[in-house]
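Repro:
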Amino acid sequence: MRRLLRVTPAPTVRAAREATRAMSSSIFLSAIRCLLTYLVIPVAGPAVHLASSVGRPISIALCFLAAFFSIRSMRRFWTANHKYRWTYTAFAFVVLAYMTYGVCTDISHIA
């Protein structure tokens, strides 16, 4: 996994704190993406007639941003040699797979 993520272990207390902070920001961004994609755009979008033209591109952009932060936090977990690195890696892969499906679905609806 270290080779795949291109990291070398540097287990320090600072690296562990950075990994935890990166994971928190990644999960926060994913929560914002979910709220916008599944709550705000479907509910408020039709009221302002934006759901069909703006909702899917916003969702795609947020998925790419969330994927970037997920991979970044995964790399930090592995760099810090965090004890939950395998757990977070499995969680991140599930989230990345779900976001990939969402992006493919959104692109197919746009095209």
